[in-house]
Structure prediction request, 430 residues.
Amino acid sequence: MKKNLILLAVFMMAAPFVSGQNILKNIGERARRTVEEKVGEKVENAVGNAVDKALKNKKEKGRDAQQNNPEENPIENRKAGTGKTGAQISWNNYDFVSGDEIIFEDTMEGEQLGEFPSMWDLFHGEAQITEIDGSKALCISQSGGITPLFNDGKTYLTEECTVEYDIFIRAEEPWDAQFSGQEHGWAAWQHIRTILSSGEKIMGDRGGFSMSFRVVADKNESFNPSIDYEWQTPSGDVRSGRYELKNVATEAWHHVAISFNKRALKAYFDEQRVANIPSAAAPHFLWFEASNDDPYTFFIKNVRIAKGAVPLYDRLASEGKIVTYAITFDTGKATIKPESTGEINRITKIMQDDPSIKFEVQGHCDNTGSDKVNDPLSQKRAEAIVAALVANGIGADRLIAVGKGSHEPIADNGTDEGRAKNRRVEFVKK
Prediction:
């Protein structure tokens, strides 16, 4: 079996072996071996390994030390692959930033294995909660189609909005037989499609923006993963494009992000910007569709929809602080996710442009878990953000890290949306 065929799937949410009696029965021994492989080694980003060293602005020492201790990195520089597809990822030019008001978020962690996810609706086919890579994820199979279940069927994507999710890319290729004896083969029929529909009803017209992965394979094991996308202009014209992906890891999670601003649409796969569209029809709904026969090919988690794009300067001027949801962390850790780079760079620029600005960096969380855990974790996360800014050249004397835990909620912790809003970072001007 070819070991390096890559199948990718794009848009909206994304876990190493699939759990549940009924699932293990269908997957078989091959899938169990596949998903038991460890996800690739972590390679640190140049942010400094020790927060105390970073606060003293000893950037070079921090960069040297992080080579020996990746777990202490404020921002993780992930390696693309498990040895199958090496290459280091650089997020320095990543400019995506989440919207400033979360309207839907599903991490899947509260769901029951083997059941249909409670925050979603099914159009057709099948979908269920599974476990892979140590966390729960949504598996869409048998030509399944799903959409978020909220807002009473009314449109919820706005003229300024973002959509994000994580996707797990399998290393093994259950569709291998398709290529036997062929000079060339196409895996175009096994894909996951992300759709930002511009229809007026959820089950209506799918026109808008859609993207999916295609993998070209030949008998010489030359595999070329790409993202194919199509969009509708405001006048109704349909256009298309393709982006050839680079350094795609298998048996690993990847981050997908899409932003829409008035007419402009951008899409990202990890640090790569795969689409940059100047004029697209306004989206109204989000869909995921999978077209495949194997039920254990696509896994998504951490789906987030947000609206709004108020410039940081305006927020700072009107409120005296910046509240952001674009800086995120690994679950239960103070490791900043690479996709937070865009927001950290924006904060850095504000402080570089105005040397008089000083910030109290506050870490906030929801009420999940105890104060004994949340209070020190929020403090460490605030310190990690300060370390990242110091590593970007901001003086440590302009920053103070404060962990607020769950003691200052701004929304109802009794709802998923409320908890998502409470998990935030605030930069309060001092």
In short: The CA atoms of residues 147 and 287 lie 5 Å apart. The chain is about 20% helix and 35% strand. Residues 371-391 form the longest helix (21 residues).
